[in-house]
Amino acid sequence: MYKKEMIAMLLTDGESKDLGVLTLGTAKSAVSFGGKYRIIDFALSNCVNSGIDTVGVLTQHRSQRLNTHIGIGIPWDLDRNAGGVILLPPYENNANVNYNDTAGGTEFACHTGTVNAVYQNIEYMESFEPDYVLILSADNVYKMDYGNMLAKHKESGAGISRAVIPAHYSDSDTDMGIYIFNWNVLMDFLKTYRDDIGADINSCIPGYAGENNVYVNIYEYNGYWKNLPDIGAYWEDCMELTSIVPEFNLYEDYWKIYTRSESQTPQYIAETAQTEQCIIGDDTDICGSVYNSVIGYGVTIAAGATVSNSIIMNNTYIGADSRIDMTVIGEDTKVGSNVRIGVNDAGTFDIQYKERAAERTWDNLSARITTIGEKSVIPDNVSIAAGAAVSGVTESTDYADSVLGSGMTLIKAGERS
Amino acid sequence: MRAVGIILAGGNSHRMKELSIRRAVCAMPMAGSYRSIDFTLSNMANAHIQKVAVLTQYNARSLNEHLNSSKWWEFSRKHGGLYVFTPTVTVDNSNWYRGTSDAMYQNLHFLKNSHEPYVIIASGDCIYKMDFNRLLEYHIEKKADITVVCHDMEPGADVERYGTIRMNVDNRIEEFEEKPLHPNSSTVSCGIYVIRRRLLIELVERCEEEEQYDFVRDILIRYKDRKHIYGYKINDYWKNIASVEDYYSANMDFLKPEIRDYFFRNPPGIYTRVEDLPPAKYNAGAAVKNSLIAGGCIINGTVENSVIFKKSYVGNNCIIKNSIILNDVYIGDNSRIENCIVESRGTIKAGAVYAGERDINIVVECAERYVL
């Protein structure tokens, strides 16, 4: 193998439930963001744009979508002869002392925490003889040059660097989940905490640094950074992209964000359509009205349908005459015709739809937003109230009086049609 | 697949008017986010042709940029690949390609070093979807020496710039006229041929000895009676874009759902270079009707019955109607553009008015643009 100065280890949280039904069957890092991207694209593109060409992606549960998305890394130019991107699922090995003890049998060497996850991949990291290892979360949206962080790390002579959003943006410094370790420090660090169930890199650093007299450099970052802790934050940060000059600019050639695009076909906006204050992905067919919304690729919105203040992810179909407001709909979902989702009061809807909900202040935004999980089916003529959640192939018999009440959750497991 | 592919992409056409200044016809942007050559390249890829040569000559910069990687069409394989051949000066040759036959002669090593028994030759300036495997089966079944793909034009269509064909009941070609003034057939050659590789080498070499250089005139027409030359009709959509009118109407065809479904939704697909553009954005005041909008566009005004290519910007209160806006065009506020083709990377100043009357206006505006 070739020596690399710095390699990156991307942590994906397969068990995150931050985004409700959207993360029911998918790792958070694989959830769509901003019309055509997935959350992991930002960290991966940052790596590539920072000149890091060796990236290990640590996956665990529900990683199928992530695996398909990353593949051999072609969209990020990470299909390399030496290095490139590689998926690192947990594996069983005698050296892995931490087994998830389930029902009496040691079955599978799941990562018990971020320290253990990285520890399990020492062999992979060793093969590149890196001087530094960048460990970062794949669940955030931002553009950042890790090269600058490395330069500061070297300059400071630190053993560990961690990136933070400085306190003047919130009550205290916010840890960004981005760390640079010197190789020797990392080895010692991992060996110290490898057996601690659930040990987390962030929480172990202060203790380790104090005991071993390792200097930790704090790298302050003042740019755009979002960690999407709940569905409300996810909605707001997506919606912000539709404002006239968004804080997070995807339209500049510098520091491009790369993603796997299934299709390059342009979008068709029909005679019957209206599109204002929205961003729309490729290969979509818009025959209805779309206001203040983020639409992924391959979406069809039938004539007479109105989508406002909502996020519709890839390959979803919205049937004729349906009205959707303040809703997040996952990928590959089929919404029937004449459906109401997230529309509180049908009477006032017409007045409200053009108003930018993103500019209002909300007491509990997450509770207001209706979510529909990926690969769901919503039958014709039903009404799903604000704040409700649906996942799975539902039929009209699942809705009493054709209504799912506010705040209710309907999850249909089992076979998908 | 038992054939290699050759794409003849050297051509220029005065019928493209100002549009041909910038690029070869094959590199013309098509349908919002494609280029003309994508259709032939994708057909070849979909037929699992593994080795394809693109022969270029006239203004190939755009084309070469587009072909910057063969991976977009899945030609980046260990076996075969995508080869771009431009004329080069060698010890025994200092000519440009003097014709299509000469272009193949000058790259005879490509044909001689292949082991596939057949060659599919196609032009890169046509919009169509075709199963080359079925074409090859037909060629073998007919025991043909050469098979020419042809298409019935609508009655009354102007076929003056095509080669016209007349076939007998068995589809053997009896008459082949190149660019006839008084055509007596509305069946035209699509510029797609199947031929055995060894026969092609033989014919091209003989042509060269006789100082003849054109594949159609000096091979097809000349050997029409000597060799078994058959026609194969393509009954689905086929359009050559090498004139402003046809280029315009081919793009407008993609506003029809059945054409889009045929090319883009029904497998196999059409592929193009991936540019990682952000989603298109519609700001307040945007009013788009019956139009195709490609990735990376920002729309603030009215767009009707138009095709807007990648990375274009339409300012506030603009009115764009029945027009084609090529890649990366900036249209300032309050402009009006009707029945126009706006050349790529153009900058239209605020308040400008361009309106074609009966003909399609070609707008080439290279005003300085301030990039923030």
Which terms would index this structure?
heterodimer; A: 417 residues; alpha/beta; 31 strands; 19% helix; B: 372 residues; five-stranded parallel β-sheet; globular
Helix content of chain B: 10-25%
DSSP, total strands of chain B = 28
If you average the pLDDT of chain B, what whole number results? 93
Unreliable stretches covering 5 or more consecutive residues of chain A: 96-107
Shape of chain B: globular
User: What is the radius of gyration of chain A computed over CA atoms, rounded to a whole number of angstroms?
Assistant: 23 Å
What oligomerization state is this entry in? heterodimer
Low-confidence stretches of chain B: none
Query: What amount of the residues of chain A lies in strands?
Result: 25-35%
Percent of sequence in beta strands of chain B: 25-35%
Q: How does this structure look, described?
A:
The complex is a heterodimer of chains A (417) and B (372). By secondary structure, chain A is an alpha/beta fold. In chain A, the strands form 6 sheets. In chain A, strands 15, 17, 19, 20, 22, 23, 25, 26, 28, 29, 30 and 31 form a 12-stranded parallel beta sheet that branches. Chain A has a 7-stranded mixed beta sheet with strand order 5-4-1-8-11-10-12. In chain A, a hairpin with a 2-residue loop joins β6 and β7. About 3% of the residues of chain A have low confidence. Chain B is of the alpha/beta class. Chain B contains 10 helices and 28 strands. Chain B has a 7-stranded mixed beta sheet with strand order 5-4-1-6-11-8-12. In chain B, strands 14-17-20-23-26 form a 5-stranded parallel beta sheet, with no helix packed on it. Chain B is globular, with a radius of gyration of 21 Å. Chain B starts with a strand and ends in a 9-residue tail after the last strand. Classes of the chains: A alpha/beta (417), B alpha/beta (372). Chains A and B meet through β14, β15 and β17 of A and α10, β14, β15, β16 and β17 of B. β14 of chain A pairs antiparallel with β16 of chain B.
